[in-house]
Amino acid sequence: MRYVSTRGAAPELSFGDVLLTGLAPDGGLYLPAEWPQLDLAAIAALDSYTDVARAVMGPFVADSIDEVAFGDLVDAAYSTFEADDVVELVDLGGGLSLLELFHGPTLAFKDIALQLVGHLFDHELRTRSERITIVGATSGDTGSAAIEACRDREAIDIFILHPHGRVSEVQRRQMTTVGSSNVHNIAIEGTFDDCQDLVKAMFGDVPFRDEVRLGAVNSINWARVMAQTVYYVVAAQRLTGLAAPVSFTVPTGNFGNVFAGWSARAMGLPVEQFCVASNSNDILDRFFATGEMEIRSVVPTASPSMDIQVSSNLERLLFEMAGRDGQAIADAMQTFRDTGVLTIDDDRRAWLSETWTSQRVDDDGAGGVMETIDRVHRETGVVLDPHTAVGVAAASRRVNGSHTPMVCLATAHPAKFPDAVEKGMGVRPELPARVGDLFEREERFDVMANDLNAVEALVRGRIL
Ligand SMILES: *Cc1c(COP(=O)(O)O)cnc(C)c1O
After folding, report:
1. Which end of the chain is more exposed for a tag (fewer CB within 10 A), N or C?
2. Ligand 1 atom closest to the CA of 142, numbered from 1
3. Are strands 30-32 and 3-5 parallel, antiparallel or unpaired?
4. How confident is the model at residue 434 (pLDDT cuts 50, 70, 90)?
5. Residue nearest to atom 14 of ligand 1 (CA)
6. Annotated domain spans of the chain
7. Is the dihedral of CA 23, 24, 29, 34 positive or negative?
């Protein structure tokens, strides 16, 4: 399997190169040169998440990793999950099910992709006898998932910068109580933007970047999307035995999760519709409704991991919509950067509306996030986190009258966002037992000034 860039001007790469490269040199995102087709009858007969994972992802990695080694990486990645079989499908009634993706080590769906990506990185680097230094900035949520993915991996050191005193105690402790010697937390005296600027400056410092072999595990990496295609197949298998179509509603930020669902459909999974659920940051909802994408400023909501304006993975769908014309995408993205607006014509809007719908869900008011948390808890006993509540509220508006089962993706455990959940239903959710000793474990982090030279010196010193 070869990989092509959405902007059409980068060389084709193997899976191993795509994994380590991330963004293509022409600024595009990598996609497989063609979509392998699922053997639905064979997959329907499989009986574990990891068996389905091997079958679905096998063709994507086949040229870079041998089958047995890949199977071992998959098993290792998903051994850290608490659920009986990695994910849980919960019936909410009325044709709506919840696919719980938060049973991994940091209580959010990002673990499903990152746990595997950590092992894939380590495998690829050891094969090449190379090491890598991962650096990243976090406002709280992604840092812990990246740390859990990279901890104890031989070929990786990971440095995560967070704004000192500005992340919640649970979020900080999820990062700083990991005792592994290859994990380094730096609390920067500044804001999240200062942390992000430091990371960008490190990547921009070419001698430093090459010296420490800097790398990233960001959400545009194809391997993350690939790992997420699996649970769409698993959900449909458990719900219908892959014999009838299913629809999905996805609480969406950067568009990686829902694009993985579309990829599964491109591989032959019977899916009727995808509903993109946005919070008040509704650029995607406006795009699907009008065919025009226009940037506005970000407003903070109870679902912070979806407080995003430009969803980078949307470029992958635009590339498919344009019949894989990379030059057209390069031109469109340039116009978007210059003017802040991207418009598509009626034919393309018609193409999108065959498969895509969208909803915007605000925190407050009728049918909003807070009311949905309260209603679902009263009606079913199920406690939703605010991101999942955006999805369930959106899905509830759509299930009426449709005979196709609807699956809403549950992206975080409610205990990760206790304040919002308490505000919604009046009760504070408890941390699951497996992370219950979080408040007793010893913390380890360095507090540093917002000073590039000092941070680079610390990174150099630690990886020696
Ligand atoms: C990252 C995240 C999202 C958004 O997922 P995308 O792939 O960026 O669309 C939604 N919910 C939670 C809890 C997240 O952490």
Report:
1. C
2. 15
3. antiparallel
4. confident
5. 305
6. 88-104+222-425
7. negative
